[in-house]
Amino acid sequence: MSDQEAAIAQASRLVGELFPQALGAVLGGSVAQGRATPASDLDIGVLLPNSAGSGREVIRYEGRLVELFLNDAGDVPRFFEWDRARRRATVVFVYAQGMTLTDPYGHVARTRQLAEEVVAMGPPPLTEEQWRQGRYVLTCYLDDLIDTPSASRHEQLVVADHILREAAEFVTAHHGAWTGIGKWLPRRLVAADPELGQALLDGHQTVAEQADPAPLAAATAKLLDLIGGPLREGYSHRWQA
After folding, report:
1. Which of 121, 141, 168 is the last residue of a domain?
2. What is the per-residue pLDDT across 114-149, written as a single tens digit (0 to 9) for each?
3. Same domain membership, residue 77 and residue 25
4. What's the pTM?
5. Which of 35, 108, 112, 137 is most enclosed, with most CB atoms within 10 A?
């Protein structure tokens, strides 16, 4: 039995043992995509009867870490709208790209179809104010990166990290693509824009390894040109208490 087959069998045992009332379940994440390592956790989406509520839980089962995405079957459309609005659609992708573990009543098939439709729809576009704020924040970080001496390594590295996170958000938004966090940030960034995404990642790595901000600064400047240019004086924002 392969590692993937063993993980699928383990996930099936978990659902049968811990969720006998489940209307269906899927296995997503790296295991479903064939990218898992022996230390990879299991990402399992479980559909529960109406009124069960939706939530996220992390447990350990048979020694393996498991992340559970629990959804009230009747709440799925509203929940997917919320997940899409975050522009990452974490649970949507579990269903859209996962493997069906059990589906006795067809709930998983219907949920997967909806998830695939949401993925194809893409994330909602940013508002004009979000674009303006993003340009301003990214401009500030770029100025800080250029102005921070290489001897101030902690400051330089923190600024570079902030630039990469902000840049990923706006590169993906520019292309109408899904964004991501953690290890999904570089994957989604390069998928949205192979050339600029790789330049940003390489620039970030150069700051980390060589204390040289020039490549990351150049890639960030290129991104700013794509989304309307740097924004400094003239920017305003009103807070609402």
Report:
1. 121
2. 999 999 999 999 999 999 999 999 999 999 999 999
3. yes
4. 0.89
5. 108
